[in-house]
Write a structure and sequence with these properties.
It is built from 11 helices and 10 strands. By secondary structure, it is α+β, with helices and mostly antiparallel strands. The protein binds coenzyme a persulfide.
Length: about 375
C-alpha cells in the first residue's frame, strides 16, 4: 500500500486549496457571524463540480472516490468549516441512495445530486433517538401505493434548504428496537413536510440545523429504499462511510488553526523576540503538528480501505468499520485539542472574534458529536475487537 497521494490527488488538493483560499476564506467570518445558509458557497461548489466527486460517472459525477472527497473537504475545512458541511451533508444524504437504491431510483435522484442542482439531507435523529438510533418514533403507515409519514426529526442539517431528505421511519412499530425501520426519499415540497425550530448553534453556524415536522406526509412506495424493515443496516453502513469525511473535516479545521498559530507566533513579539522562539510554545506546536499528522494518516488509511469497495448493502469488512470509527474519534479529539491550543497560543487575541482560531475552536466541537459521538465511536471500535 502506498502512503503518498497520487499525482491526480495532489493536483486536486492544490486546486481545492486555491479555490478555498481565494473564494471561500474571505467570507468565513461573516458566514459564522450571520448564521445564514451559504448559497454563494453552494454556487462555488457547483461551478467547480465538487458535489459529484464521489458519484459514479454514470450519474454525472467524477467518480474520484471517498478518499478524494476527503481531500476536498479537508482543504475547505481549513478555511471554513461551515462550507465543508455542505459537502458532508450531501454525502450523508446521498449515501443511502447509493447503497440501497434500485437502478430506477438512482436514475431519478442521482444526476441532479451529482451536479449539486438538488441538495439532500439525512433525517435520522429524533428527540429520544440520538446515539440510540433504534429508538425512532417517526412512523410510516402503508396506504395503498403510498406511505403516510408522521413524526418529528431533530438536529437535521440542511433539511430547510434541501430538495429531498432520506427519512428513517418505523414501518412496523410493533417490532421493538431497530427492526421495522425503513428509509424513504421524501420530496421536501410534499404537503405536510414542515420545518420547525431553527437551532442557534455554537459552531458551523453557516450551516442550518432544523427540526422536521412530518404531518401526514404522503410518500409513494416507490421511494422506499431496499424495502420495508430493511432500513437499519442502511443507516449503519451510511455512517460507517460518512464518518471518514467528518474526520477529514476535523483535520482541516485543526490544520487551519495550527497554520494560523504558527504564523502568528512568528510575528508576535514579547520579551524582545518572536514568541515562536520560546521552547515552551515550540513544544506545544510540535505536539499539535504531530497529532494532526497522525490523525491525517489514520483518516487517509481509513479512506483508502474503502477504495474499490462496491456501494451496496453487503456488510463492510470489520477492519473498515474499525478504521472509520478510529479515524473519526482520533481526528475529532485532535481537532478539539489543537484548536484549543491555537487559541492559547494567541493569548487574549485568540479569545476574540477578530482572529479565526476562536471560530475554529467552536467549529471543532461538533466533530466530536455529530455522526456519532466520540463515546459511540469507542463502542463501535470495541465491538470490532
Ligand atoms: N453495518 C451494517 N449493519 C450493522 C452494522 C454495520 N456497521 N452495525 C450493526 N449492524 C446491524 C447488526 O447486524 C444488527 O442487525 P441484526 O439484528 O439483524 O443482526 C443491527 O444492526 C443492530 O446491531 P447492534 O445490536 O450492534 O446495534 P445497537 O442498537 O446496539 O447500536 C451502535 C449500535 C451504538 C453502534 C449504533 O446504534 C450507532 O452507531 N449509534 C450512533 C448513531 C449515530 O451516529 N447517531 C448520530 C446520527 S448523526 S446523522
Amino acid at each position: 500500500m502506498s502512503y503518498d497521494l497520487t499525482e491526480e490527488q495532489q493536483m486536486l488538493k492544490d486546486t481545492v486549496a486555491r479555490i478555498a483560499r481565494e473564494q471561500i476564506a474571505p467570507g468565513a467570518e461573516a458566514r459564522d457571524e450571520e448564521a445564514q445558509f451559504p448559497w454563494d458557497m453552494v454556487e462555488v461548489l457547483r461551478e467547480n463540480a465538487l458535489f459529484g466527486a464521489d458519484f459514479p460517472e454514470k450519474y454525472g459525477g467524477s467518480e474520484m472516490g471517498l478518499f478524494s472527497l476527503c481531500l476536498i473537504i479537508e482543504e475547505i475545512a481549513k478555511v471554513c468549516a461551515s462550507t465543508s458541511v455542505v459537502l458532508l451533508v450531501h454525502e450523508l444524504g446521498t449515501t443511502p441512495i447509493m447503497l440501497a437504491g434500485t437502478d430506477p431510483q438512482k436514475d431519478r435522484f442521482l444526476p441532479k445530486l451529482a451536479t449539486g442542482e438538488h441538495l439532500v439531507a439525512f433525517g435520522l435523529t429524533e428527540a429520544n433517538a440520538g446515539s440510540d438510533v433504534s429508538g425512532l418514533k417517526t412512523k410510516a403507515a402503508r396506504e395503498g401505493d403510498d406511505f403516510i409519514l408522521n413524526g418529528t426529526k431533530m438536529f437535521i442539517s440542511h433539511a430547510d434548504i434541501a430538495d429531498m431528505v432520506c427519512i428513517a421511519a418505523k414501518t412496523d412499530p410493533s417490532v421493538p428496537g431497530h427492526k421495522g425501520t425503513s428509509i424513504f426519499v421524501v420530496d421536501t415540497k410534499t404537503p405536510g413536510f414542515g420545518i420547525g425550530k431553527h437551532e442557534n448553534k455554537m459552531g458551523v453556524r453557516g450551516s442550518s440545523t432544523v427540526e422536521i415536522v412530518l404531518e401526514d406526509v404522503r410518500v409513494p412506495a416507490e421511494n422506499i429504499l431496499s424495502g420495508e424493515g430493511k432500513g437499519f443496516p442502511i443507516i449503519m453502513k451510511t455512517l460507517d462511510l460518512t464518518r471518514i469525511p467528518v474526520a477529514a473535516q476535523a483535520i482541516g479545521i485543526a490544520q487551519g488553526a495550527l497554520d494560523y498559530a504558527v504564523a502568528y507566533t512568528k510575528e508576535r513579539t514579547q520579551f524582545g523576540k518572536p514568541i515562536f522562539s520560546f521552547q515552551g510554545l515550540q513544544w506545544m506546536m510540535a505536539d499539535m503538528t504531530t497529532q494532526v499528522e497522525a490523525a491525517r494518516q489514520l483518516t487517509y488509511k481509513a479512506a483508502s480501505l474503502f477504495e474499490g469497495l462496491p456501494k451496496n448493502l453487503d456488510r463492510l469488512p470489520t477492519e473498515t468499520i474499525r478504521y472509520s470509527a478510529m479515524a473519526k474519534l482520533m481526528a475529532s479529539e485532535t481537532a478539539m485539542k489543537v484548536t484549543t491550543d491555537a487559541v492559547q497560543l494567541l493569548g487574549g487575541y485568540g479569545y476574540i472574534k477578530e482572529y479565526p482560531v476562536e471560530r475554529m475552536m467552536r467549529d471543532a466541537k461538533i466533530t466530536q458529536i455529530y455522526e456519532g459521538t466520540s463515546q459511540i465511536q469507542k463502542v463501535v471500535i470495541a465491538n470490532t475487537l
